[in-house]
Amino acid sequence: MGYQMTFKRYELKYLLSGQEKEQILQSMKGYMKLDSYGRTTIRNIYFDTDTFRLIRRSLEKPVYKEKLRVRSYQSVCQEDPVFVELKKKYQSVVYKRRLVLPQSQVMNSLGCGKLLPVNSQIGKEIRYFQKYYGSLLPAVFLSYEREAYYALDGSDFRVTFDENILYRKNELSLGSKIYGTPLLEKNQTLMEIKTAGGVPLWMSRALTRNRLFKTSFSKYGLAYQRMMAEREEQGGIRYA
Q1: What count of Cα atoms within 13 Å lies in the side-chain half-sphere of residue 8?
Q2: What is the pLDDT of residues 134-166, one digit of tens each?
Q3: pTM for the model
Q4: CB 191 within 8 A of CB 13
Q5: What are the DSSP calls for 36-75, one per residue?
């Protein structure tokens, strides 16, 4: 059985220019610190049906939505650990179920449309998810460079900055090189505020001072929309 983790929090997203990022970083001094990993490249493989049922449903902005992905924080080999994540969102609250397993075990199951052979509580949730949606297979590879900051006061408040967000439909492997089509404009950053409670007053003031407003931004959702636009241009099928 792999190591298990569960998260419950709010995630607020903001698109920043390079100058706005620097202004927020200045406001964070004395309150937050870059984690020990520094700037890391995160790799993700999102799973979906052959008609992209999961992401199409998510883009409809329902009260409840869910996604399944496999993630690593570096290029991995067959026996290296990766994260299997079942991410759910209900009434703006994000719930994440996470298993840590060897990449070979994960991809030999999920990568081939087979049930994950793990009988822990989170493993059972993922297996139920697979059975409910039917055959799920790798749909898109999505990577980005992340800087993650944690609060110096010991609270669970976190801020992340994602840049160079890339997606592709081929070579869906966590051990592959980083390349793909960009989702952000040049010098643009996606900032995410993650908290189980409220936003600290100092951050609220920084957001107001810089006239920053939260936005709806789904990396996989935007990648799907771009892929469908490309398919339509090429005369392919467009899913409603």
Answers
A1: 3
A2: 989 999 999 999 999 999 999 999 999 999 999
A3: 0.92
A4: yes
A5: EEEEEEEEEEEEE-TT-HHHHHHHT--SEEEEEEEEESS-
